[in-house]
Write a structure and sequence with these properties.
The protein has eleven helices and four strands, in the order ααααβββααααβααα. 42% of the residues are buried. With 297 residues, it is mostly helical. The N and C termini lie far apart (52 Å). The longest helix has 32 residues, at 3-34. The strands form two sheets. A two-stranded antiparallel ribbon has the order 1-4. Strands 2-3 form a two-stranded antiparallel sheet. It has one domain (3-283): ABC transporter involved in vitamin B12 uptake, BtuC (Orthogonal Bundle), CATH 1.10.3470.
Length: 297
């Protein structure tokens, strides 16, 4: 394989990895605070491209305005799902919350099929995102550049919020001990809702960038990216935001390079990704940057 082809695949892997990183952070933030795997996160990811699509098609909003509205509506959806499906079960056995998360996932899938129909729709891309830049023999789509830049900006903002603000301090405090945080004056409900809003907003950005990269949207489009983002969170260390970012980038790189070096086996790329999850759980279940934590009973 030539150097140019390797560089081309590395660029593609970086782009895909940035999308996985954005989505996986939502998993890891919710798990870090509530020890809950929010299996509806992939469906939250799916809603954002639809919000943008109808914002442009029906309400004739400029693309950038529809982008912002889609992020806002997706964040609100995350807050509502937490308020309705998870908060009432906060003191219930963990299996009950997990079942509720699966229920929310299927509810949003079927709601999307009823409201938006199951027919795939062509996702609108502004002319800029159709541009292809040529660097020697390497072709870089503008969507690739945009996904890396936008992902990096939002990830930096998230790191700032978590480690430099009072809300971030409250989030980190709750992740250690909810009851003690409540006794220290932390508004637990508001902080958890904010966590869901941030995670959902990042999933929205990832969903819209995904729609730009693969310009077709349909109600089940969030299933596989959501599962792979979950794997990325586990690989990096679920509950650890930098770990989720690292896991997302690594998974994107590995997936693209697997197809590049083993094209005859490209049909097994998803199986290969899931085998990575099995190996991680067998040999390092806490992930690359995760720490062993004593499970509370």
């Amino acid at each position: 394989m030539s150097l140019n082809l390797i560089l081309q695949n590395l660029a593609n892997g970086l782009s895909l990895g940035s999308l996985y990183a954005l989505i996986s952070i939502g998993y890891t933030m919710v798990y870090g605070i509530l020890r809950l795997i929010n299996f509806a996160h992939g469906e939250i990811f799916m809603l954002a491209p639809y919000f943008l699509y109808y914002g442009v098609l029906i309400f004739h909003l400029p693309w950038w305005a529809s982008f912002l509205v889609a992020i806002l509506l997706t964040a609100v959806t995350g807050i509502v799902s937490e308020r309705v499906a998870y908060r009432p079960l906060r003191e219930a056995p963990r299996i009950s919350v997990l079942i509720s998360a699966i229920g929310v996932s299927y509810f949003l899938q079927n709601l999307a099929i009823v409201v938006f129909s199951g027919i795939p729709k062509s996702f609108h891309r502004p002319n800029f995102f159709k541009t292809i830049f040529q660097f020697g023999e390497i072709r870089i789509q503008s969507t690739l550049i945009a996904s890396v830049i936008v992902s990096t900006i939002f990830l930096i903002i998230l790191i700032y919020i978590i480690y430099k603000t009072k809300t971030g301090l409250a989030m980190r405090s709750i992740s250690v001990d909810i009851e003690t945080s409540r006794l220290m004056g932390v508004n637990v409900n508001r902080t958890i809702s904010f966590t869901f809003a941030i995670g959902s907003a990042l999933a929205a950005v990832g969903g819209i960038l995904w729609g730009l990269r693969f310009p077709q949207i349909y109600p089940l489009m969030g299933m596989m990216p959501g599962l792979k983002a979950f794997i990325a969170a586990v690989v990096g260390g679920i509950g650890n935001v930098p770990g989720a970012m690292l896991g997302g980038f690594l998974l994107g790189m590995v997936e693209i390079l697997y197809v590049a070096f083993l094209p005859a086996l490209s049909g097994y790329r998803d199986a290969f990704v899931f085998s990575i999850l099995i190996l991680i759980l067998l040999f390092r279940p806490e992930g690359i940057l995760g720490k062993k934590v004593q499970e509370k009973v």
